[in-house]
Amino acid sequence: MCGPKPARASSPREWLIVDAEVAEWRLRALPDPDCIRRLIEFRSLVDPPAAALASTRANRHQRIAINAAHQRLVHASPSEALQSAAEDALRAAIVDASGDELLRQMGSVVHVGIKTDEGFAAQAAACAATRSRFAAG
Q1: Distances in Å between the alpha carbon of 42 and those of 9, 68, 84, 116?
Q2: Cα(61)–Cα(20) distance, integer angstroms
Q3: pTM score of the predicted model
Q4: Nearest Cα to Cα of residue 27 among 113, 120, 91
Q5: What is the DSSP string of 65-94?
Q6: Taking the CA of residue 122 as centre, how many other CA atoms within 13 Å lie in the half-sphere pointing to its CB?
Q7: 66-98: per-residue pLDDT in tens?
Q8: How far apart are CA 107 and CA 20, in angstroms?
Q9: How many whole angstroms separate alpha carbon 91 and alpha carbon 119?
């Protein structure tokens, strides 16, 4: 179903400055490897400040969530999908504990870029495998 989202009252604090849905829509409509690369590079501007803020702002429950996510990452199977999910959970726990809404929004946009890049990599691998089967057959 396409169309606008139902209207609802919101405060300016709820307004998005950086919108992950818009970034995802844009990358799906017009895949751009340079844009994805820039989003992944942008991650270096999001993750370190989020971690610094989380180190001073996180409450007990957030620290437990960060530690649990870290343990899941350390003990994740070598499967790329499981490693990626564990990294996502750790990054999300840290950004959440930062308490910074703008970093949270930027982190969501970076996440879209990483997921899109993983999708491109999977498609490229599938194409390469198909080409090699045809070349061998």
Answers
A1: 32, 26, 18, 15
A2: 26
A3: 0.69
A4: 113
A5: HHHHHHHHHHT--S-HHHHHHHHHHHHHHH
A6: 8
A7: 999 999 999 998 887 888 889 989 999 999 999
A8: 9
A9: 19
Q: Whose CA is closest to 39, among 137, 116, 128? A: 116
Cα–Cα distance for residue pair 97/65, rounded to 1 Å: 9
Q: Could you tell me the two tokens for 76?
A: 């994740």
User: CA 16 to CA 106: how far, in whole Å?
Assistant: 10
The b-or-e profile of 29-57 (16+ CB within 10 A means b, else e) is eeeeeeebeebeeebeebbebbeebbeee
Tokens of 98: 């930062």
Cβ of 128: how many Cβ atoms within 10 Å? Answer: 10
Task: Confirm if 58 and 97 have CB atoms less than 8 A apart.
Answer: yes
C-alpha angle 20/57/40, rounded to 5°?
Answer: 30
- pLDDT tens digits, one per residue of 36-68: 788 778 888 889 999 999 999 999 999 999 999
> What does the angle CA 96 – CA 99 – CA 102 come to, to the nearest 5 degrees?
90
